[in-house]
Design goal:
Elements: H1 4-16, E1 22-31, E2 43-44, E3 46-59, E4 64-69, E5 74-79, H2 93-105, E6 113-119, H3 129-145, H4 154-166, H5 173-180, E7 185-190, E8 196-200, E9 208-214, H6 222-240, H7 253-258, H8 263-287, H9 295-307, H10 314-325, E10 330-334, E11 341-347, H11 351-365, E12 371-375, E13 382-383
Parallel strand pairs: 4-6
Antiparallel strand pairs: 1-3, 1-13, 2-7, 3-6, 4-5, 7-8, 9-11, 9-12, 10-11
Bound molecules: alpha-D-galactopyranose.
């Protein structure tokens, strides 16, 4: 297939009869570790994928936005009325209208624009195609309008587009990854302060590879379950009298758990508190250049998601178990759960064998074949030309 940036430009020319003023790209992401910690004000460690969404764009007069996407080959048009309040534009166009709405709501004078969108980030695989779309559109509009919105403030705005306009109660991780990640690094993000540290993550130098297995599991009730997990965490924090579960340190965990009588809330709290600590431990190992030693932390994260947070599904657990049995140093589900992808940290020379072992385990259980790809950490949203 043609390069994604070329497809966006070609789409723009076909749809609008001229060349775009510029092209802006934003990546999908995987989360190395730190799952369901972002909306608990905790820590996450995502990295950007070399798979990107590209917006080719140019200004147009007035408060009008016209967006074509190669995915549905549809054009969506909206004006000031549709972005006056959330929810008026639905479907994929809502992510674009949501960004315009959030910018205007924050007081920015958003330029009218024509956009053409092309993407290599698969939809529904848990790789944050929605955040990639939001970030590509946001950076395009910021540049076209010369808006005063530094990169550090952009993720919160994109998150508002998703939370308020689209209506999905996600945390700040995906938008931060799409905007702030750096090539060759993982993004250590404190979701309370939004401070970031770019942690070198040189798999190649360590002789390692990161295998991403797409479970191809259908997302079962993912939205409702996500919201339910969020509510449990908030209930746990309220019961413990802290602003967020981030405020429960690992050394206070046992005391905190003893104060919770509901076993389910106890499990949810235990996941979040131990997961925050696993992020800190992973960061410490990476800072020390001890990449291969993070494997057990990844696997422990998976066990916690499976047993305490209860967000994995049989396809995902099968992929993790098969990868570990075939020699992966660590493996875990990445993303919100109930489907999506599994990460396996492997020796470079073992990547194919681990992927084959997962495929064989799937066949044995009668699951549809999984997909797989090896990835290196890429950069965040950027203007291409
Ligand atoms: C989804 C959400 C993120 C985060 C993860 C779980 O990807 O969009 O904000 O909560 O789930 O870590």
């Amino acid at each position: 297939m043609t390069d994604v940036a070329e497809r966006a430009a070609a789409g723009f020319r076909t749809r609008y009869g001229e060349s775009p003023a510029g092209r802006w790209a934003a990546p999908g992401r995987v989360n190395l570790i730190g799952e369901h910690t972002d909306y608990n004000d905790g820590f996450v460690l995502p990295f950007a994928l070399p798979l990107r969404t590209v917006a080719a764009a140019a200004g147009q007069d007035g408060a009008r936005w016209t967006v074509w996407s190669e995915l549905s080959d549809e054009t969506v048009t909206f004006g000031a009325d549709e972005v006056a309040e959330p929810g008026r534009v639905t479907g994929w166009g809502a992510y674009v209208a949501g960004v315009v709405w959030a910018l205007r709501d924050a007081g920015h004078d958003v330029p009218g624009a024509r956009l053409a969108i092309a993407s290599d980030v698969p939809l529904g695989a848990g790789l944050s195609s929605s955040a990639a779309l939001e970030a590509a559109v946001l950076t395009a509009l910021v540049d076209l309008g010369g808006l005063d919105l530094p990169a550090g403030r952009q993720p919160r705005l994109a998150q508002r587009a998703e939370n308020v306009y689209v209506g999905a109660p996600t945390g700040i991780m995906d938008q931060s990854a799409a905007i702030r990640c750096r090539d060759g690094h993982a993004l250590f993000l404190d979701c309370r302060t939004e401070e970031v540290e770019h942690i070198p993550f040189d798999l190649h130098a360590a002789g390692l590879a990161m295998l991403v297995v797409d479970s191809h599991a259908p997302h079962r009730h993912a939205d409702g379950e996500y919201a339910a997990r969020r509510r449990s965490c908030e209930a746990g924090a309220a019961r413990l009298g802290v602003p967020a579960l981030r405020d429960v340190g690992i050394d206070q965990l046992d005391t905190a758990l003893a104060r919770l009588d509901d076993p389910e809330t106890r499990r949810r709290v235990r996941h979040v508190v131990t997961e925050d600590q696993r992020v800190l431990d992973t960061v410490a190992l990476l800072r020390a250049g001890r990449v291969r030693e993070i494997g057990p932390l990844l696997t422990a994260s998976h066990v916690s998601m499976r047993d305490d947070f209860e967000i994995t599904v049989p396809e995902i657990d099968t992929a993790v178990e098969a990868a570990l049995a075939a020699g992966a140093l660590g493996a875990r589900m990445t993303g919100g759960g109930f489907g999506g992808c599994v990460l396996a940290l492997v020796e470079v020379h073992a990547a194919e064998a681990v992927a084959d072992a997962v495929t064989a385990a799937y066949a044995e259980k009668g699951f549809p074949a999984p997909g797989h790809v090896t990835v290196l950490p890429a950069g965040g949203a950027t203007r291409l030309d």
